[in-house]
């Protein structure tokens, strides 16, 4: 699967999720993978990009509007994963919702 | 240094830069470090977060407005680094400019 999200012409929305894992990461990788698979099936899902290095990760998911972001936020399985994240997996996170206004691409020849 | 950007209350701007390194990464790490140090001194700079995993990285820099983003984009040293990036270091990238509208935080107790 392509690591880059194949997003459409702006405007659209980005959820920028930065997180630091706690020392108790048991079950995290499996749940994270499951959540991405579930997000991909949600109405309006536009794409996902992610990287983690020494416990600090940035994941960006892309959506057409704020309504689709709210719907995904409130999905029952996602709610349970969020709760587990706060109780167990994350020592800290930031979640920023942003409206993408410009999009530039480069591919080496 | 804190890995999280200590951004102010929204609205502000995010530059979401996703990139895949090429096989020729000679000099990349040093230049990337230099660019972050230089960005931190730019007027209006609000913060920076970054992670790279198996060559695929996401860096997000935060700015108060589009004017400060343009000024940093057009900085001479940064222009030279961008050129090197396209000619040598990156096999592909996406650069998305977004207006942050909401910001949620979590810190484990």
From TrEMBL, chains A, B:
Q: Name one GO molecular function term.
A: monooxygenase activity
Query: What highest taxon heads this organism's lineage?
Result: Bacteria
* Pfam families reported for this sequence: ABM
Alphabetical keyword list:
Monooxygenase, Oxidoreductase
The record's section on InterPro entries has:
ABM_dom, Dimeric_a/b-barrel, Jasmonate_Hydroxylase-like
Residues forming the ABM domain are: 25-83
Please verify whether the record's keywords include Oxidoreductase: yes
Q: What SUPFAM superfamilies does its record include?
A: Dimeric alpha+beta barrel
User: Could you tell me which PANTHER family the record lists for this protein?
Assistant: ABM DOMAIN-CONTAINING PROTEIN, BLL5343 PROTEIN
Identify this protein by name.
Antibiotic biosynthesis monooxygenase
The beginning of the lineage is: Bacteria, Pseudomonadati, Pseudomonadota, Gammaproteobacteria, sulfur-oxidizing symbionts
